[in-house]
Amino acid sequence: MAALRSRPRIAPRTGTAAIIAAVVGAVFALPLIAMLEFTLRDTDGGHSLDHWIDLFTPANAAKFQVVWLGLQNSLVLAVVTVVIMLALLVPTTIFVALRLPRWRRALEFVCLLPISIPAIVLVVGLAPVYQVIGRSLGTGVWSLAFAYGITVLPFTYRAIQSNLDAIDVRTLSEAARTLGASWLKVVLRVLVPNLRQGILAASLITVAVVLGEFTIASLLGRQNLQTALVVINKQDPYISIIVALLALMFSFVLLLVIGRFATVGESRRSSRR
Question: Is the pTM of the predicted complex or chain greater than 0.90?
């Protein structure tokens, strides 16, 4: 006991933690402030809201139509990619954890493999696949979700798997089965609620990656937010920075909402216990 009490303090002091938080916050805030200042510049050398007003003026809707179309396509892609990712990854990781624990290394290797493959190489391999998809399912922008699902796989797998390792999956599933629950109820009503934080983190990562992806969409000839920003940047660089700043703010707000939702869910689950 004496040895445990004499162990040195590992956690930083309050003042040190505040300094670290301030430095990290400044690193993230300074580029955003610079972007905001750039969007407020006018032709007279001063600052005004003219560029922001131009973007949201209904009379300029046709001029900036490419931006709104790219944003709409990216949001559709984000939703479809999240659905595909969760529908494939969550059941697979649960099944491997319960039935095939020896195959976890193989699953981890397959899921982490895309991070070592450059996007341009991935597009070259997917081009013949997308020719078949185009003939059978159409060439809509939503079809990019299949490629994006592969791109986000390494990040979403780690988020879900780390949450899965934090709970006793086998004990929970066996207890539910003993009480007469089917496997579908075990997954949906027992395991998925305990994986809420991992699922939310994986969904946030997916949305962030989809909103910022350019290479795959450009090489496959699809239009998303990033390709639209390249087009509009040639016409009005201020508008492209404004839209990029709004996309970053959207991701930040989404992070806060998801974090708050996860905290509320965890507190409710703890109170029930």
Answer: no
